Amino acid sequence: MSTTQSERLRGLLEPLVVRTGLDLEEVTVTAAGKRRQLLVVVDSDEGVQLDAVAALSREISQALDASDAMGDAEYVLEVTSPGTDRPLTEPRHFRRNSGRLVKLQLKERGELIARIMTVDDAGLDLEVPGVKGRKPKPARADFAEIEKARVEVEFNRKNAAGDDVHEGDGVQDDADDDVHDEDVDVHDVHEDDENDENDEEA
Question: Are 179 and 128 in contact (CB under 8 A)?
């Protein structure tokens, strides 16, 4: 996707997303067979509810139909929330993953795997898990020294209630209605349905 198209799409879609109380995290256009795919990733501190995604998807679809931002070629619109494999790049990303184990690449200290305990304006208070029966240790990482960061998936992580959370099995650790990109995707297909039927018959 060209920078110009990316800027146009973000400029068109961000006001719609912000109006619903969500953050626009990502807008990408990629080739998907004969069509293109427009991926719109949204998030919030409270998570993203299915009905909010569905309503936002309809609004985005209408706004795109009324503009020429996607041109005349067919495309598939997908509105979703971020997956656990997305890079953590903004303070809000770390805040929304408080309690999770993350892998940090630090400028001077190299790689650090630790759990986010609290997040402030300058950085993260962390807890480094103990190994071989040792106690966890506190640590600190300022945003200025973080080069890369991602969530580490834990297959037997405890939630706030002390229950096991099996992330590898797709179990959500927040509200059951939260939308995750591996669980629920909302698609709006902009295409000629008659042409698809003819293709199948052929």
Answer: no
